[in-house]
Amino acid sequence: MKKILSLVLTFSLAITMFACGGQTSTTANNSAETKVAETEAAKTEEFKSNILFCGSTSLYPIISSLASSFTESYVTWDKVNSNFPKKNISIYVAPGGSGVGASAAIEGTSDFGMLAREIKDSEVEKLGENYKRFDVAKDALTVSVNTENPIVGKVDNMDTDMIRKIFSGEISTWKQVEESLPDEKINVYIRDLSGGAYEVFQNVIMGKDTQIAADATQSASMTELAKNIANDKWGIGYAGFGAYNKINKEKQVLTAMKVDGVEATEENVVSGTYKVQRPVIFVSGHVITDSEQAFIDYIFSNTGKEVIAANGYIPAF
Fold this sequence. Notes:
Elements: E1 2-3, E2 11-12, H1 30-46, E3 50-55, H2 60-74, H3 77-80, E4 90-95, H4 98-107, E5 112-115, H5 121-127, E6 132-146, E7 157-158, H6 160-168, H7 174-177, E8 187-191, H8 196-206, E9 217-219, H9 222-230, E10 235-240, H10 241-247, E11 254-259, H11 266-271, E12 277-284, H12 290-299, H13 302-310, E13 314-315
Parallel strand pairs: 1-9, 3-4, 3-5, 7-11, 8-9, 8-10
Antiparallel strand pairs: 2-4, 5-12, 6-10, 6-11, 6-12, 6-13
């Protein structure tokens, strides 16, 4: 399959540097002062000031936006909690796909793995007894076409069998979808193989025995996938609910088909009626530190809900 962009970009937040300050003891006993200073130094040394998230490109803009606002609001950890040392807040967020996120959390190369799919039992087992899962949002995969495609207004629903045949290449022209449409080749757009969306679509629509056509164009992120469909009058792809809503915010450039008669609406996604959907989560396999918990609390705050909604997703809390 064609590869559009190379994966795994690294994004780091800007960090403002501040000098660390110490506290002065009021006691006159030099040995006591030394002991207190040593205790405070030990606390500072043990404190985890750096946090790394890696994985899903769908969750990436949400976590990176929250990491940025968290860092800008507090700058140093003592502003978050007076019991924390005066150390610079450093939160790094790197995209790469759900598979990369799961592997990074398992191998310990990242504190948290971001996934836009269900976590596998085998992955949970590898994360061990300290496994933690955090559900951030709900997402769906919309079967979308370019709004300029003449199918819009003629066909508004595709059943699972029709979608499977289109994405496998068995149906290769728009005329085969609807007799009145032009005999134009259908251009299929998908996420790359490391993306959670690829696995979700394969499991829910394609099934075990049918593969997506080898000439389908892969996209490095869900945003890129939505743009690829929007730029191709004869394109079709499974744009995520968040990416679909975001790209249509100013002007509707994508139109989503109903799947088996069910529209991809927030209500239908939440109720589970719309079947092509997935959780947007992050996971870890270690004991959560105080600093990590402080940022997690920020993610699951009203600010977090606002950022999730602004990115077109449905908050899961």
